[in-house]
Amino acid sequence: MKSIFSISWKRSKQPRRQRKYIHNAPGHVRDRLVSTSLSKELRQKYGKRNLLIRKGDKVKILRGQFKGKVGEVSRVDRQNLRVHIENIGILKKDGSRTSYPIHPSNLVITEIKLEDKKRKAILERK
């Protein structure tokens, strides 16, 4: 794999090359990396397995210290491939609270915000 991003690169067993692919990926590829699986009810309703996560979606956390908590997505950080959820945060040493970034693979979408026309079209397409 070259030093710049390559669309033709398929796969590698080496973790360093996988990390390099994600690190050098342009925005349109990073969008796909921030997709999250849908809950069982939403899968049956829309016939899709996963969807790009957006601000306003309700999600359930499946892994980590906040496992089982449900909240609304407040921010999606495409640069670092992390999602910030309302009321999910940590207490810092100075006493202030800060949001805790969670990887999208550790989430499941339980409720979709359908105000966007593109999003409705994606779900109706299947």
Q: What does this molecule look like?
A:
This protein is an alpha+beta fold and 126 residues long. The chain has one domain: SH3 type barrels, CATH 2.30.30. It is built from 4 helices and 8 strands. Strands 2-1-8-3-4-5 form a 6-stranded mixed sheet. It has a two-stranded antiparallel ribbon with strand order 6-7. The longest helix is centred in the first third of the chain and has 9 residues, at 15-23. The mean pLDDT is 90.
Task: Describe how the helices and strands are arranged.
Layout: H1 15-23, H2 27-33, E1 35-38, H3 40-46, E2 50-52, E3 58-61, E4 70-77, E5 82-85, E6 89-91, E7 97-99, E8 107-111, H4 117-125
Parallel strand pairs: 1-8
Antiparallel strand pairs: 1-2, 3-4, 3-8, 4-5, 6-7
CATH class descriptor: Mainly Beta
Kindly estimate the percentage of residues that lie in beta strands according to DSSP.
25-35%
How many separate domains?
1
Specify the number of helices: 4
CATH topology: SH3 type barrels
State the separation between the terminal residues, measured CA to CA.
35 Å
Class based on secondary structure composition and strand pairing: alpha+beta
CATH architecture group name: Roll
The helix content is 25-40%
| Average pLDDT | 90
Radius of gyration (CA) equals 16 Å
Uncertain regions spanning at least 5 consecutive residues: none
- Please give the order of strands in the largest beta sheet: 2-1-8-3-4-5
* Extended strand count: 8
What spatial form do the alpha-carbon principal axes imply? globular
